[in-house]
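Appendix B, record 7
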Amino acid sequence: MSPRLTHTQKELRNQQILEAAKRVFAEKGYGAATLKDIIQETGMSRGWIYLYYQTKEDIFESLLDYQDADYEKYMEQLMDSSSSIWEMVTTLYSEQLQELHRSPHGGLMPAFYEYFLVGWRDESRRELLLQRYEKGIARFAELLRTGVEREEFFPVMDVMDISRLTASFQEGIMTHYITIGPEKANTSMQYEALVLYLKSMLHPVSIQETQP
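Structure tokens (predicted):
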């Protein structure tokens, strides 16, 4: 009879599964990755995995939640360490670009797009994508709103609309990065253009101060 695991041990084992899945999805994408690949990467038995997850899809969606939780912690740390909201925004995009350069296949992003765009006709996936989209738009808009409240930004339009436009810009960058590659797409230039676009929409206080 297997020993009973504590709650902490269960959480740790789940984290090990998700970290292994992250490596597999980053290497192979969503479609090519298999549950067997993930099981082999964990070094656990199939039985152990089935105590937590039944399908590759279950693991991937749980991995998205896991990544979101890490991102929220990162955002809190960045808020504490940044001197302004504009610095925080530019740091976010700079680190996204660095992560793309560090990861041979772009990390999890290709798997993310593959999962949702290829499977967009699936009602449950479409609903999940919509939820994640609205959450992401609201989260970035709230960050911009904080800048407005601190009188760091003087936006030319509603921050929710700016957030939606920025998301569309970024989705285009990522789609080109995945489909034609970072060199032909000139991903670095596109990120620079995105920051310039945001600057023109937000008018950070540093720009205001330099105007005659």
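Remarks on this record: Confidence is low (pLDDT under 50) at residues 207-212. The chain is about 80% helix and 0% strand.
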